[in-house]
């Protein structure tokens, strides 16, 4: 896996991992996440990796337990567990996040996200879908004892032109949410190449060598029209 550090400011590098719950490419979900990343890289040096849950393949969808996953899926799970900051981003469908998004976190170690900063982000067809942040996403990460950032980010279909976020109020909410926790994130930054302690529940786990895959990658994504479910 090739990871490209983004370093407009000095200091330790923050390892950011985006778990993308959208099946569309490109998508409004990732269009909004791009704004989050652009805002964040103006505050801290960041290193961004992305896990696309809909592209993890049969080694993921057919797994019932952690031991059932393929090495490539294990790599993606470890990537999320080892992040300094996790961005959990999903579209809203039938009143909640997609089942594939939930299945990914069903396989994450129960204690690996404890006290880890998590930014919640959701995209829905209308403003009434914003409740998914507090009624579905935040309780999910409360189970993991994660440190969810108080200001979550929601954008509706009317806030976009295709996959490009236009609403200045959403931009402002993103900036406020990140500014409130920038000191915490700076303290969590570990820098590239820093050894990690194994996740709780996996005392014998060894670091995996990351290699390129279709489901886990770092890239710059151009904005273009997104599908119905994005």
TrEMBL record:
Region: Disordered, residue numbers: 189-230
Q: Name one Pfam family in it.
A: FMN_red
Q: Which PANTHER family match?
A: FMN REDUCTASE (NADPH) (PTHR43408:SF2)
GO molecular function terms noted in the UniProt entry:
oxidoreductase activity
* Keyword annotations of the record: Flavoprotein, FMN, Oxidoreductase
Classification lineage: Bacteria, Bacillati, Actinomycetota, Actinomycetes, Streptosporangiales
Protein name per the record: FMN reductase
- What InterPro entries would the database entry show? Flavoprotein-like_sf (IPR029039), FMN_Rdtase-like_dom (IPR005025), NAD(P)H-dep_FMN_reductase (IPR051814)
NADPH-dependent FMN reductase-like domain residues:
15-157
């Amino acid at each position: 896996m090739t990871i490209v550090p983004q370093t407009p400011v000095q200091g330790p590098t923050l390892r950011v991992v985006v778990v993308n719950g959208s099946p569309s490419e490109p998508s409004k979900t990732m269009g909004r996440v791009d704004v989050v990343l652009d805002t964040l890289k103006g505050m801290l040096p960041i290193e961004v990796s992305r896990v696309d849950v809909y592209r993890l393949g049969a080694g993921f969808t057919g797994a019932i337990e952690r031991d059932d996953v393929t090495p490539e899926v294990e790599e993606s799970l470890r990537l999320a567990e080892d992040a300094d900051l996790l961005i959990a981003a999903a579209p809203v469908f039938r009143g909640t996040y997609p089942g594939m998004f939930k299945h990914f976190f069903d396989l994450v170690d129960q204690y690996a996200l404890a006290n880890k900063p998590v930014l919640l982000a959701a995209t829905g067809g209308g403003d009434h879908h914003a409740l998914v942040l507090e009624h579905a996403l935040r309780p999910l990460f409360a189970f993991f004892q994660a440190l969810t950032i108080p200001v979550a980010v929601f954008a509706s279909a009317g806030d976009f032109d295709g996959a490009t976020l236009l609403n200045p109020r959403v931009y402002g909410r993103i900036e406020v949410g990140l500014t409130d926790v920038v000191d915490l994130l700076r303290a969590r930054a570990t820098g590239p190449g820093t050894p990690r302690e194994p996740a709780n529940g996996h005392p014998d786990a060894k670091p995996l060598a990351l290699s390129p895959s279709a489901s886990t990658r770092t890239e710059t994504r151009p904005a273009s029209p997104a599908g119905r479910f994005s």
